[in-house]
Specification:
With 419 residues, the chain is an alpha+beta fold. It has 13 helices and 14 strands. The longest helix is centred in the C-terminal third of the chain and has 44 residues.
C-alpha cells in the first residue's frame, strides 16, 4: 500500500494542474453544499425564533372599523371591544376556547423609584398573558386571579425597566413600591428582557387598570388559547363564525372582515412552516446539483487521466502487471484525491458557516415591533458534512471505476499504440 501511495504522490506531482482541477471540483461541490445549507438553516432558525414569541394555539382579537353599512348604520364606525365580547368568547365558543383574557392600556405614565424614573405605558392583563406571550420570570411572580378579584395595585415589569429604576440591583425591586404618575404600585415580578416591544410593557391586573382610569367595560383586545383546530380550514371556519358573532354584538355586517381583526398565531405558523419547508427543499436541490457538478468534474478528469495513461498501463501489463493491480491503482488514487480535497471542502464550508454565525448571525433588524434576528445558528450538522463528503468519495470512486476497468483489460499492444 505504501508503494501505491508513493506512486500516486509521484503522479500527482507530475500532473499538478490535473490534480488541482480534480481537487477543486471536489472541494467546491462540498463547500457550496455545506455553505448553502448553512445559509438556509440560518434563515430558517431566525424565522423560527421570531415566530416563537407567542403561544402557537392562541389568538388576539382587536376592534377595527366597519367597511360596510349595516342595519342603517354608516360604514367607517370604530368598533370597541367590551365585556360582552369577552363573555361571548368564553361562553359561546367553549368547545374550542380554553382560557380567555383581555388587555387594556394607559399610556403616557411616569414610573418613579427614588430619583430614577422612565416613561411608558401600563397594560392591564389577565393571568393568561404570561403563557400566551411566553414571558419568562427572573424574579417574583406574574399577575394572579387574586390580584384580579381584589383589584390590587401590583406591577410586573421586565429586567431592563427594573434596571432603569434600580441600576445596582434590579431584581431586588420585587416587593418594593413604585410611583406610577402619583399612585403607588407594588412590584411583584420581573420578567426576562428580550428587546421586543411586545414584551416591553409594564403589566398590572386588568380590573385594576380599568377601575383606576375609568375605562368602563372596554377592552383594547381579547386574547385566548384554543384547542381542536388542527387544520387551516378548521381555523378559517372558526374565525368566520367568531367574527360574525362579535360583529353582531356591534351591529356590524357578519361578513365584515374589517370590523374585527383576528390574529391567529396557529395559522400564521402553519403558513410560515410551509414557506420554511419550501426554502429548505430548494436549498437541498441547489446543493445537490452543486454537488453533482463536482461529481461530473471529477468524472471528466478521471476519464482524461485514464486516457492519458493508457500507454503507461500497456507498459505495466507488458512487464507483468495484472489487471487487478492497475484497477487498484486507479481506484486508490481516486479515493485518496477525493477524500483529501473533500475534507478540505468540508472544513472550508464549516469555517464559512462559523464566520457567518459570528458576523451576520449577530445582526438584528428592528421590525417595528421587535428586534428580529437575521441569522441564528447558520450551521450544518456534522452528520450532513460527513455524508456529503462520503457521497463525493463514492462518486469519485465510481467515476474512476468505469474507465479503470476498461484500462485494466486493454491488451498491451493496443495500449502501446494509443496516442
Amino acid at each position: 500500500m505504501r508503494d501505491i501511495i508513493t506512486e500516486i504522490w509521484s503522479t500527482a506531482r507530475r500532473n499538478k494542474l490535473r490534480t488541482a482541477l480534480t481537487g477543486f471540483a471536489v472541494a467546491w461541490g462540498i463547500f457550496m453544499l455545506i455553505f448553502l445549507l448553512g445559509c438556509g438553516n440560518g434563515l430558517i432558525n431566525a424565522q423560527m425564533n421570531n415566530m416563537n414569541r407567542f403561544l402557537d394555539n392562541s389568538m388576539m382579537v382587536h376592534g377595527g372599523s366597519t367597511s360596510k353599512a349595516h342595519e342603517g348604520l354608516q360604514e367607517g364606525r370604530d368598533i370597541q371591544l367590551d365585556d360582552g365580547d369577552i363573555n361571548t368568547t368564553g361562553r359561546n365558543f367553549s368547545a374550542h376556547v380554553d382560557d380567555v383574557g383581555a388587555r387594556a392600556e394607559q399610556m403616557g405614565l411616569t414610573f418613579t423609584y427614588g430619583e430614577n424614573y422612565f416613561s411608558g405605558g401600563l397594560h392591564g392583563v389577565y393571568p393568561n398573558e404570561a403563557e400566551i406571550s411566553k414571558l419568562k420570570l427572573r424574579s417574583g411572580r406574574f399577575i394572579n386571579p387574586t390580584d384580579m378579584s381584589m383589584q390590587r395595585k401590583c406591577l410586573v415589569m421586565n429586567e431592563a425597566q427594573a434596571r432603569e429604576l434600580c441600576p445596582s440591583s434590579p431584581l431586588s425591586l420585587v416587593g418594593k413600591h413604585v410611583n406610577v404618575s402619583g399612585i403607588a404600585f407594588q412590584v411583584v415580578g420581573i420578567t426576562q428582557e428580550d428587546k421586543s416591544r411586545f414584551q416591553s410593557n409594564v403589566y398590572c391586573p386588568f380590573t385594576t387598570l380599568r377601575t383606576m382610569y375609568n375605562l368602563g367595560d372596554k377592552a383594547e383586545s381579547i386574547v385566548f388559547t384554543f384547542h381542536g383546530l388542527n387544520t387551516e380550514q378548521e381555523n378559517e371556519d372558526f374565525e368566520e363564525e367568531y367574527r360574525a358573532r362579535l360583529n353582531t354584538n356591534h351591529h356590524a355586517a357578519p361578513d365584515d372582515e374589517s370590523a374585527i381583526w383576528i390574529w391567529n398565531r396557529f395559522t400564521q405558523n402553519m403558513q410560515m412552516n410551509k414557506g420554511i419547508s419550501i426554502i429548505h427543499t430548494a436549498l437541498w436541490i441547489i446543493g445537490i446539483f452543486t454537488l453533482l457538478s463536482g461529481i461530473v468534474g471529477v468524472s471528466n478528469i478521471m476519464l482524461i487521466t485514464v486516457k492519458e495513461r493508457t500507454r503507461e498501463f500497456g507498459i505495466r501489463k507488458a512487464i507483468g502487471a495484472t489487471p487487478a493491480s492497475i484497477l487498484r491503482l486507479i481506484i486508490v488514487e481516486s479515493v485518496i484525491i477525493t477524500t483529501f480535497f473533500g475534507y478540505i471542502g468540508m472544513l472550508l464550508g464549516i469555517a464559512a458557516n462559523q464566520y457567518m454565525d459570528a458576523t451576520a448571525g449577530q445582526m438584528k433588524v428592528d421590525s417595528g415591533l421587535f428586534q428580529a434576528t437575521m441569522f441564528a445558528d447558520p450551521t450544518v450538522g456534522i452528520d450532513v458534512c460527513i455524508e456529503a463528503t462520503v457521497v463525493m468519495i463514492l462518486a469519485g470512486t465510481l467515476a474512476g471505476l468505469i474507465p479503470a476497468r476498461k484500462a485494466a483489460h486493454i491488451r498491451p499492444i493496443e495500449a502501446l499504440r494509443a496516442e
